[in-house]
Amino acid sequence: DEYGPYIYRFDRASGERTGVVALPDKFAATTLSALGDTEIAANTVGRVANKGMEGLAITPDGKTLVGIMQSPLAQDGGTGASTVRIVTVDLASGKVTHEYAYQLDNLGTAAKPKYGSISEIVAINDHQFIVDERDGKGLGDDSKAVQKKLYTIDLAGADDVAALTGEAALAGKAVGKSLLVDLVALLKTKGYTDRDIPAKLEGLAFGPDVLVDGVLQHSLLVANDNDFLDTVGGLANPSR
Fold this sequence. Notes:
This protein is mainly beta. The protein has three helices and 16 strands.
């Protein structure tokens, strides 16, 4: 649950909650409010309202849970800052093992930075991951989509930032990233305009292997979140 953020274990057969993964206190906002602006103004530590732990992945070996924050924590600069935290959890013990830093693209200028956010993380193996970094623009409010990019990262050998606080400290230890696919550019080659591209491309999952020209290739599924709204501002807002 990104609003805690809380990580719960459930029994698949019964649906009952069977455990809780305790995150460090630094991730939680201490003063809560139903009004986002009020909550943000009241906290100097913890996740920013509605921008908690947005992505979760389990490594293929089943040993490690990896969570990534949607935006930087308040003490790391909040939504105006550049660097979010990644948390790894040992599933056998339920204990947090490491924190890593991931630096967002600057979509503005050096003088007036503007950052997107993270929606998803998918495990390739026990140390490599795909991260979904995006803006909130596109189909839904008739704005122009600018950034929907998937990056690969490798946590092997990355610096642990659990003891660090603040944007500058985290940015200096951020894990390297490599562009996998620019979804805006890709969709434009398929006939989409920057106003037709769904604003919230938030879901990633590996699909079945498929034959392409006789070659077996892996597939990656990308889905948008329409927030249960069929229309926004009079415009159709479908899930895809």
